[in-house]
Amino acid sequence: MPRAFFGDDLVDSPFTNASAAAKTGEGGFYGLVCITSSSLNVAVYDATSASGNPLWSGALTAGQIVSFGGKCLRFQTGLYVNFVSGTGSVRALIK
Description:
By secondary structure, the protein is mainly beta. It has a single domain, classed as Jelly Rolls (Sandwich). Helix content is about 0%, strand content about 70%. It is built from no helices and 9 strands. The chain has strands spanning about 5, 10, 15, 20-25, 25-45, 55-60, 65, 75, 80-95. The strands form 2 sheets. Strands 3, 4, 5, 6, 7, 8 and 9 form a 7-stranded antiparallel sheet that branches. A two-stranded antiparallel ribbon has the order 1-2. Strand 1 and strand 2 form a beta hairpin. The radius of gyration is 12 Å and the shape is globular. The two termini are about 10 Å apart.
């Protein structure tokens, strides 16, 4: 799995081009990097499926980076990236 520095932290960045669990268990969600997009809309949940506590949602364009200013959104159950509509690929920045 690719790893990258985000702020002072080393984070994992799992790749997905479809709805998927990026991580199970607790951790920190630092953001998303959109690799490709064709009208891509995603929703990110504290869950292992497309339910649970929503953490972030929105439309993404290729090359867009979603960040929270170096801060993370904590999750307990897992991190699930749901492709609501469109197609594309993203990397979730998690620790």
